[in-house]
Amino acid sequence: MIKRSYWSLPYVIFMMVFVVLPLVLIVMYALQDGSGHFTLANVTRFFTDSDSLSTFALSIEVAIENSLICILLGYPAAWILANRELNRSAVTVMLFIMPMWINALMRTLATAELFNMLGFTLGKGTLLFGMVYDYIPFMIYPIYNTLTKMDKSYAEAAEDLGATPWKVFWKVTVPLSMPGVMSGVLMVFMPTVSTFAISEFLTNNKIKLFGTIIQENINSSMWNYGAALAFIMLVIIGITSLFNDSTQESAEGGLI
Asked: What pLDDT score was predicted for residue 244?
């Protein structure tokens, strides 16, 4: 009989070829110069390049704004979907997930064409609209999952102690749903910083995000500096992921 562990070999090979190897290549190019010698100049250049720093700051600003809008719109939607008294059909949940079945580039092109037909000037407003439209499902779904799996006895205990529905929501539901909110923020914030297609099509390339300068460097055959920028993004994503894990652990620990 074939050992069960052997069934994982295709997945291990896939991860090595399509995940580990690209990451190793990014780090390798980021820490080399054009001649293949080790250097930290590509990484340090980012901290002295005013254009890269201003683009990065703008990307963080847009990502924060997009995340906040997605929370404000996504949390009520997730709460309604998870409330069995307000939503008794699983079809409603599917309606929120269906936009994810369409290619993101096609959704962006359709959104840009819609703004052109309506005569709107493409800029930061249209960029944020497109960002929210593309990423809000990634905010709704984690919050929805957390709310549906939440132990209802906490809310019932608060009601038995005389808490109003509003207090139950703010003192019980919101704190217990924070792991879902943090997961949603992570899934919205980092892709917003690193995207380039949405900003290119919805602003006519007037607004450049961090992903755009990575793309421009790669397209200009400046592989080393482009890889260094991508490496910096990887470090930021890793730190954010660790922060998200620690937040979830503290939230779960607070329930014990």
From this structure: 64
Query: How buried is residue 252: exposed, middle or buried, by Cβ count under 10 Å (0-12/13-18/19+)?
Result: exposed
Q: What's 114's domain CATH number?
A: 1.10.3720.10
Nearest alpha-carbon partner for 224 in 25, 21, 19: 25
Q: What are phi and psi of 38, to 5 degrees?
A: -65, 135
Quote the DSSP letter at residue 123.
S
Domain range for 72: 56-253
* Model pLDDT for residues 68-118, shown as the tens digit of each residue: 999 999 999 999 888 877 776 667 777 777 777 888 888 899 999 999 999
Q: What is the pTM of this model?
A: 0.83
∠ CA 14-19-25, nearest 5°, is 125
DSSP SS3 for 164: coil
pLDDT under 70 in the chain at which residues? 1-2, 88-90, 243-256
Distance CA 83, CA 19 (A): 38
DSSP 8-class letter at 38? B
Q: Do 40 and 220 meet the contact criterion of CB atoms below 8 Å apart?
A: no
Please state, in angstroms and rounded to a whole number, the distance separating the CA atoms of residues 55 and 60.
9
State residue 88's pLDDT score.
Answer: 64
Helix %, strand %, coil % of the chain (to 5): 80, 0, 20
Rounded-to-integer distance, Cα 97 and Cα 101, Å: 7
Q: Is residue 37 part of a domain?
A: no
